[in-house]
Amino acid sequence: MSIETPVYADAIHGRCLCGHVAIHVGRHRAELGACHCTRCRRWSGVALNVFTAEPDHVRVEGPVAIYPGEIAERAFCSRCGTSLWLRNPGEVYEFMVGVFDGAKDYPLISEIYIDRAFASCRFAGDHVRRTEAEYEAKNPFIAEGA
Amino acid sequence: MAAMSGACMCGAVQVSVVAKGDHMTACNCENCRRWSGGVGFTFEVEAKSAEMTGPIKTISLLPWAERGFCGDCGSGLFWRVISDGEMSGMLKMSAGLFPDGTGLPLGMEFYADERPDGFDLSQPHKTMTRAEVEAHFFDAGKGD
Questions:
Q1: Which of A10, A5, A47 is nearest to A27 (CA)?
Q2: Whose CA is closest to B76, among A84, A117, A14?
Q3: Cα–Cα distance between B133 and B79 in angstroms, integer?
Q4: What percent of chain A clears pLDDT 70, i.e. is strictly above it?
């Protein structure tokens, strides 16, 4: 497993805490990326940890609310507040791993905004780590700005 | 301890709290994992002096606790004990709302035996397994 050699898996199912939102995902990348930027921290409570799937392989049912962020939209259950995914319109879904029981132990392969990580939240492992400056140099459309 | 100010992702909810303990708690129970999308990361605050404004929604799926979130952006805000008893009124805030995560060190990890592989918290801290948590806080099998 590494950034360069993706590992994929098939059908997986997720649901929010209250059970009103159900998510069915087909083929998806079975590896996690974590983000410690301010937006992700505020939204998820600490570090956001996601896996990706193409829109063709995603089916969602239930009361999903979308917050249209400046960079990515963020989806949550309007009834219980469970954080579900973030996504740039038309691009891949980035699903919150905790929503999917079957994804619980996917390996972490990348952490970004590592210089913004809380001192209390450091993940062990030899995965790729990128600072804000390193990440934004490769993704100049992003201005995290907080 | 001085009051700390925080905000949800979109800024519609503003909070001001005073930390009650000296550490952060990570929780890997199924409910915290699902609701936060990963790991519940909270710290206890003085409930009486906590101030929160904005479009806060709450949901109570269990008889003894409720969870609050921003109705505009979905940021998780808090977990509060709403039943009577020793822990009644206990208020734990989501760490992510605060700059530098309040600066408090990670002191405890609940349900450490159910920790996802991708959340291997590397700092030295105390841990409790599901069995230990349930023996300490709940009747066995009641969960969080």
A1: A10
A2: A84
A3: 17
A4: 94
